[in-house]
Every structure is written in structure tokens, then in C-alpha cells.
Design a protein that fits this description.
Blueprint: H1 3-8, E1 10-16, E2 19-24, H2 25-28, H3 30-38, E3 41-44, E4 54-58, E5 61-65, H4 73-91
Antiparallel strand pairs: 1-2, 3-4, 4-5
């Protein structure tokens, strides 16, 4: 794995101004990491085409759509990760 790839799979979260924590996406959301590496992509945020906040797509179109809103981005990503895990059990 290249250094650029490693950086792209980590997010720095600044919970307060005195400390920054790095979260490894592939550790916290393993199904999401596998999805974008092997199957398709995700979209986060609302747009004119969908009312869901988070979605998973592949070359055939929409695979999973989340709820309209979540209490946090973390909750949205956890829901996405669970759904992608179920999808992969059934389809991969």
C-alpha cells in the first residue's frame, strides 16, 4: 500500500481545539473500505436526485440508501457500513 493510499484511508478528527485524533477508515468501517476498493462508491449529503443523506452505488446504480438525516456523520457511516456488510454477505 502506498503512502498516498494510507493517507486517503484515514481521517483526522478535531474533537476539541487541543487534540486531534486520527481514525483509520478501514479499521472503523471495514465494509465501507472494502466497498470503495472493490465494488463502487458512496455519496454523502443531500442532492436534487435523492433525499437520503448517505448512499452506496455501483455501476448498476443505487445499492443502498440511508435515512434522510442522522444525529451525526458517525451514525450515518455506521449505518452504511452495516448495510454494506449485509449486502456483501448476500452478493459478494
Amino acid at each position: 500500500m502506498t503512502r498516498k493510499t494510507e493517507k486517503s484511508r484515514a481521517i483526522q478528527v478535531n474533537k476539541n481545539k487541543s487534540a486531534t485524533q486520527t481514525i483509520r477508515i478501514d479499521e472503523r468501517f471495514p465494509h465501507l473500505a472494502r466497498w470503495v476498493a472493490e465494488f463502487g462508491w458512496v455519496e454523502i449529503g443531500q442532492d436534487d436526485y435523492s433525499q437520503s443523506f448517505v448512499r452506496a452505488l455501483d455501476s448498476g446504480g443505487m445499492v443502498w440508501e440511508g435515512k434522510r438525516s442522522y444525529t451525526s456523520l458517525d451514525h450515518a457511516l455506521r449505518a452504511l457500513d452495516r448495510a454494506l456488510g449485509k449486502w456483501m454477505e448476500q452478493n459478494a
